[in-house]
Amino acid sequence: MVSRNFADVVTQRILSKRSQLVVGLDPRTDRLPEELLREPCADARAAADAVVAFNRCVMDAVGPHAVGVKCQVAFYEELGCAGMEAYAATLRYARDRGLIAIGDVKRSDIASTASAYAAAHLGHPDGSSPRAGDFIVDAVTVNPYLGSDGVRPFIEAAAANGKGAFVLVKTSNPSSAEVQDLDAGGAPLYERVAALVEQWGRPYCGECGYSLLGAVVGATFPKELVKLRALMPSTLFLVPGLGAQGGRVQDVRGAFAPEGLGAIVNSSRDVIFAWERSPYREEFGLARWQDAVAAAAADVQQELWRVTH
Amino acid sequence: MVSRNFADVVTQRILSKRSQLVVGLDPRTDRLPEELLREPCADARAAADAVVAFNRCVMDAVGPHAVGVKCQVAFYEELGCAGMEAYAATLRYARDRGLIAIGDVKRSDIASTASAYAAAHLGHPDGSSPRAGDFIVDAVTVNPYLGSDGVRPFIEAAAANGKGAFVLVKTSNPSSAEVQDLDAGGAPLYERVAALVEQWGRPYCGECGYSLLGAVVGATFPKELVKLRALMPSTLFLVPGLGAQGGRVQDVRGAFAPEGLGAIVNSSRDVIFAWERSPYREEFGLARWQDAVAAAAADVQQELWRVTH
Prior knowledge:
The structure is a homodimer of 309-residue chains. Chain A has 309 residues and is an alpha/beta fold. The first copy, chain A, has a single domain, classed as TIM Barrel. Helix content of chain A is 42%, strand content 15%. Chain A is built from 12 helices and 8 strands. Chain A has helices at 6-17, 44-62, 74-77, 80-96, 111-121, 148-161, 177-180, 189-201, 222-231, 269-272, 280-283, 289-307, and strands at 21-25, 68-72, 100-107, 139-142, 164-170, 213-217, 237-242, 263-267. An 8-stranded parallel barrel of chain A has the order 1-2-3-4-5-6-7-8, surrounded by 8 helices. In chain A, helix 2 runs parallel beside helix 4 (80-96), helix 2 packs across helix 12 (289-307) and helix 5 packs parallel to helix 6.
């Protein structure tokens, strides 16, 4: 038995670091600093090695400013087996640095298969050691289209191992409305999904009042964030879409409870490639790209803290 | 440019093999024949090696009876990096044997990330060689919750590379109704998703009249299969859920057009672990497990062909 609740860990981390920032490690290999690329883009193994080197530098830079990192596994899968090794190496480094590691895997399947995914990414539901710990993270993202028997295995694995899961409710992309906003009995579908997630998660609340079962709600929909915050009082939010996707820091205020708790906000490209854009390009440039990353993370951290307090 | 359309390839294969069967390579390592397990279940690498050996034997056995295989990637992810290598080795063997390989990955993400997934599993949208071909399959499964910009990158990659994608419409699991059957403007959600899939896929029809964009519809819902067949005349169906999940061969008849085309049906546990159940246990037993697998595949193949002709 693990007594630690994932939402409690996140809440403690927010308070001790005065940060609600999660940095997205989505390494598009065509944008990595040249010094890390020995054979740029040609070979999957060389690209994967560059990704690990880059991620380590980014984690060193953002460590003081972020509660954790979120790895978008698609960018690792794209590099095949070498990429999955880079994913595992990145997660190991995040653990060593004490950063919460979120696997943005958006997995979904029927019950028996969802159990295999849950074991792969969160550990066994009986808390025993998994045969392969390569992809074990502190929390994953999960797609709700298959209903509760596709989500329950993640809840059980999370409860047994002090882990968490964030269910997609309202995603940050422009076409999310096509399915998620369909009218479902007088309310958009995402509100019906929100009610299910709140209901599934409520038995798993920690001392902080939030559940190990969280929700993904995009920063690009500020009004929906406010509505969902009210509909899901026990649910921790993971808010992607800040920066490159168009979400602004003031847009995510609605995701938070009054005391600045209840949500963590992900920024990927705007932080990890900060040296490419103003004002960091002028101040640091490519030569000091790691300082640019640290400065961008610190700026988002402080701005988030200010608008939520 | 690739002129080959995935639906045409499937249709030709159905006719030449007189088979609509896809065999699911979902290797639950606690059920593999003992002869393949050197260090049963203890070590991920040993388990992954056993999985590859098992899959090769299964593909040898079912090759004459099946149009292809479907790998449920969750069971490979569960074994970490070693498992992903086993997944890649399994796909290579399927290609060598001329079997259509379907990656049951149910991926879903926003546009730029979905592009990375599509490149990982189907190849680049410009048809150029991917840096890592490890996970390249003939078709993948995709979750529709994020709307068209999460699906379009798969369509583009499929069109450029002679590949296909099957979008989840109505899944085979008991709780699929919780989200998929929600009333969405007078029709269940899955019918609205069905209309979107038919619309997205129609510009990509092959000479056979079916599109490279298919749909996943569970064998456990025979009435819905009939309704969806009528709503989606251009859409190839991938029908899971036969056997262990409760679907019977006569239940899937509605998935097919009159001439026995328009659908392929997946059976996993009932075929690949056939020696564990009657009548194959009595006739072959563990000692001749590969013959049991071949016989079970032949039986499902023939039964499917009979009920659809």
